[in-house]
Amino acid sequence: MKFTIFIGQATNQTRYELDADPSITVLEALEALRGGKAPEILYRHSCHHGSCGTCGALVNGTPRLICVTKLGDLGTREIHLKPLEKMERLGGLAVWPGPFFAKLPDTDYLRPSTREAGDEAFDPDQAVLRLEDCIECGLCFSACPVEGEFLGPAALLAVAVEREKHPDREKEMLDLAGGPTGVELCEKRYECSKVCPQGLAPGRKIAELRKLLG
After folding, report:
1. 69 within 8 A of 25, measured Cβ to Cβ
2. All domains of the chain, ordered by start, with CATH?
3. Entry pTM
């Protein structure tokens, strides 16, 4: 099938034509273009299977991981690609997620392990492991309609999980959630939950925090 891929904003788009099997992913399509007639295309990726979180982009207006989004699943042969919103744009589809990471609190939920399996000193009972399955892709952050100083879905999800797993930090976490950048700024549209590739439902956790705060 022939696909037309547009990259960039509506007023400054570059158009590419590609003959491709609908079963390939958007990332594979970009790799085919970059390896052929469009070496100038810029994007970020690493794992190719939805676990590293680096390849997020707006695909026909929706934040998605392009490494697991198949061309044929989009229901159209015209594919519009834009960089994620609210991120620092590097060029093409490539963004630096600094604004997203700056919002994240210091919690176990988003703190990587300091020891790795295979190390002689590795002790699974002592290692600091990630809670849940957040891959820090920033899709929820990009999809959230709230602008400004709002902590955002991933950060408040981290707060909620930290409160549940560490009762000694409950007051600290609730103070953060109830602060001027916390849950009251959420517009309850649940766009964050719709786009989360891990199905973590940050919108539900934000609602739970709001209920706890009365």
Report:
1. yes
2. 2-96 (3.10.20.30), 98-213 (1.10.1060.10)
3. 0.86
Buried b (16+ CB within 10 A) or exposed e, 41-77: bebbbeeeebbbbbbbbbbeeebbbbbbbebeebeee
Per-residue pLDDT of the chain (214 residues; tens, 9 = 90+): 999 999 998 788 999 999 999 999 999 999 999 999 899 999 999 999 999 999 999 999 999 999 999 999 999 999 999 999 999 999 999 999 888 988 988 886 655 444 344 444 444 444 444 445 789 999 999 999 999 999 999 999 999 999 998 999 999 999 999 999 999 999 999 999 999 999 999 999 999 999 999 8
Closest CA to 197 of 53, 27, 29: 53
